[in-house]
Amino acid sequence: MLTVISFILFTAFAAILTWRITRKDENSSSEGFFLGGRSLTFPIIAGSLLLTNLSTEQMVGLNGSAFKNGFSVMAWEVVSVIALVLMAVFFLPKFLRAGITTVPQFLEKRFDKGTQTLANTIFLAAYALLLIPIILYSGAKGLINIMDLKTMTAIESDYLILQITCVGIGIAGMVYARLGGLRTLAVLDTINGIGLLVGGFMIAWFALRHLGGDGGVSSGWQTLREVHPERLDSTGESGSEVPFATLFTGVALLNLFYWCTNQQIIQRTFGASSLAEGQKGVLLTAGLKLLGPVYLVLPGIIAYHLYFGQDVNNDDAYGKLVADVLPPHLTGFFAAVMVGAILSSFNAALNSTSALFSIGLYKHKINPVASDEKTVKTAKLFVTVIAIAAMLGAPLLSKTGSLFSYLQTMNAIYFIPIFAVVVMGMLNRRVPSKAALASMVVGLVILISTLIIYPAINEGESFEKVTGFSNFHLMGITFAILVGIMFIASLLAPRAEAWTMKTNTPIDMTPWKGVPIASGVLITLVLIIYISFHR
Fold first, then answer.
1. Contacts of 490 (CB under 8 A, 6+ apart)
2. Beta bridge partners of residue 243, listed in sequence order
3. Which residue of 255, 264, 447, 530 could cross-link 352, Cys pair, CB 3.0 to 4.6 Å?
4. Are 496 and 426 in contact (CB under 8 A)?
5. What is the pTM of this model?
6. Rg, Å, the chain Cα set
């Protein structure tokens, strides 16, 4: 009963406070609905970025990867700090100066409508078929275990309770996404983000105390160091999920795309009230990411110690740990912030998907003369369709292996081609439009062939397992091939006139003076963490 009461109380508190803060916001225009009226300040940007990222595919999936592979999977948190620094220093000023709402819009300004349309379609397909269902599935898995919903509902079928939970979360997220614009979602993210950080550290604290017994937290940490020293190594060996060498190829590229060009994430920064506020928000997020290993990796290693040899799979480990170590009066609170995290990522994906569809396809191709009000109404209708499809498709993911590994592998299919085109578009002013379009197609063909088709025709044997060549290195090579195609094209058939970035924004573009110092400190801390945990 205490669990249910604390769950309801925190959920209601977050919803009411968000409504009080944003009830007068204007959400009928495209700028209001998709960009929060370009009014977001750095605490809201940081809180929203963090919680959009920290959904249950992180809490459940990354701790599940740590349960299986150990501390080396912290790369997904720590290496992201470098990507966020590059976002603040290089990418964000260019995006904000262009005054865009979506990344494909930037590609249209840099290349042409064909490049924009292809990138837009790729984003839409990836979000609708991959990202949104995974958010629902991982959220449902975590909530089922934390709240012990099977016992609470007396439903014996694992698949049925999974379906029901996916539908419940999906409906709640769909209502939020339809009724509120980006600022509403960002404020709700910030409130839940504070709760999630508190809750995440609580889990690590109670888990270490549980492990240490009478000796407390320090004894629990010492137990891990003595019993499982190999699992506290920051550098993964060859054959592990994240070998150290891949930090400089595929892992680096996936982080760079995710934090610098992924529409779902960076749409928050497009709503910044100024460049300085955007940069401060991005760098504050980077600082918070340095804390990620404490609550996104350490609990998974503790779960390995507690449940090794038991019938506990990767993606159930975190939920079981929370249920076992957290006092009942706090379980409901943590479940509430977990639901907030689920809704944050779900809503962010829905909002970004609706922006891509309504601005990138509907307004661009289907109905160019549509009014702002009509465009937003179409976006809300599209949100409903995508949310329902995700509710139906999410339970099917129960047949995958490691959720986080699966997500990163599938993400690469569209991450790498789009990132290559964005980077070359910014760095080389002579790359022609046809080369950009061709590179995206070539990248898709290479990665779909090796990551999807090859296993399908070889009885599930992955390209990585058969060849011994890491998928992350494959991503790096693919990126190099695409960059090479565009560079050669810029020499043999260059754009007639060098492209120039035109300023098209109402916000102040004065950079934050603290960027160089903050960036240097963050990168130094990344190096210290890796050196400190290297064996």
1. 428, 430, 431, 432, 435
2. 236
3. 264
4. no
5. 0.81
6. 22
